[in-house]
Design a protein that fits this description.
alpha/beta; two-stranded antiparallel sheet
Length: about 120
């Protein structure tokens, strides 16, 4: 979710080139809400924390409720003064697609359930 349409389209192209399947983009808070509420499967999300002058904390809360990890992107220094989304990685604009891709990789690895190591058999 990115409010600058040309930037959003460029990121979609770059992420697709890097092997990601992209749903969206959403350039307004309403589009983002519709996308999240649509029931489409999301492995992860990229959330511009301020979409066209409107804070996207409600979208972030909805993603969290649905168990969808997300990366927060912003051009602002103060993103979440209440610390509600402290676990979300933060990328400061301008966004480099390769860095975003690496962050998504880390985010998805981190959110996968960790398997308990198997104990050696006592045989």
């Amino acid at each position: 979710m990115e409010d600058e349409e040309l930037v959003a389209l460029a990121l979609v192209d770059e992420l697709t080139r890097l092997g990601w399947s992209v749903v969206g983009p959403a350039t307004t808070l309403e589009q983002a809400q519709d996308l999240v509420s649509s029931g489409v499967h999301l492995d992860a999300a990229i959330l511009d924390i301020n979409l066209q002058g409107r804070w996207a904390h409600g979208i972030a809360e909805e993603l969290s409720r649905r168990g969808v990890p997300f990366v927060a992107c912003t051009g602002y220094e103060m993103v979440d003064p209440d610390g509600r989304f402290a676990d979300a990685p933060l990328i400061v604009k301008p966004i480099a697609a390769d860095r975003l891709s690496a962050t998504l990789d880390e985010l998805l690895d981190r959110s996968e359930p960790q398997q308990t190591p198997m104990e050696p058999s006592a045989g």
